Here is the input.
Amino acid sequence: MAFSETMQLPRRRPPTRPRPPVEACGTEAEPGRTARVLVMLPTYDEALNVETVLRRIRVSLPGADVLVIDDGSPDGTADLADEVGRRLGRITVLRRNGKSGLGAAYRAGFAIGLAEGYDVMVEMDADLSHDPAVLPALVQAVEDGADLAIGARYVPGGSVPGWKWSRRAISRGGCAYARRMLRLSAHDVTGGFRAYHRGVLSTIDLHGVRAGGYGFQVEMTYHTERAGGRVAEVPIVFRDRTFGRSKMSGRIVVEAFLLVTWWGLRDRLHFHNRLRFHNRLRRLARH
Here is the structure.
C-alpha cells in the first residue's frame, strides 16, 4: 500500500452522538476483532529501537497495519523499518522531508487512516517507553464505545518508575494545569499512547490543530471532549527509553504551556461575552 504525504485531509463533519458500534470496513480486520486498526509510529533516529518495537506490535496486534512516519532520520531508521516490513508484512513507511514535529507526523497519519477506511488509529512512541502489550486494551476500549482511549500514567494502576521527583512534579503539574484551564475530564492529558475512533477524528478540524510537540496530545484531548467524545483511560507503566536520545526539549514544554493558557483564557472570554450578551437581552426583554 503506497501512502502519500500530500493526501488531503477530510473536511470537517458535524459530530454524531451516539456513534454506531465499530464495524470493519475495507480490508479484513484482525480475527476476533471487528475494527480495522492502524498503529502510527513517528520516528526520528530510532534505528536502535524500531525493529524491536515493530516485532512487539506484530505480536500484540497480529491483524493491525503499522504506519511508520519517519522525518528523514539520518541514522537509516526508515530503511530498517522497510526491511522489517518486508519480513513481517503490513508495515508501511511514510518518508517525510525533514523533522517537522510530532503533531505534523500524526496529522499526516490521521489523513491516511481516514482516507484508507481504518476504524481505530493508535498513537505510540517508537522508543519502547510505550509497551506494545497494552495495545489490545486500548483498542478494546474504543471497540467498547470510547472515542479516545488514553494509556494513562496518572490513574490507579499507572506509574512512571524511575522518574525523579522533579520530573514527576513537572509532568503531573502540567496535566493538572491543562485539566483546570481547559476543563478536561481526562487525567493524563499529555499522554502519547492513545487510540482514537475514526468518528471523533472526522469531527475535528485537523488543519486547525496548532501544536507541534507534546502539546498536540493536550490539544487533541481538548478537541475530542469539546466535540462530545467519550474518553477512557487505560492504566500503563511508562518506562524511559533504553536506547537513543529523548526528543523532549524546553521549547516543547513552553509551547504547550503557552497554548493551553491561550485556549483557556479564550474560552473564558467567550463565555463571559456570551453571558453579557444574554444578560443584555434579558434586560431589554423586561422593558
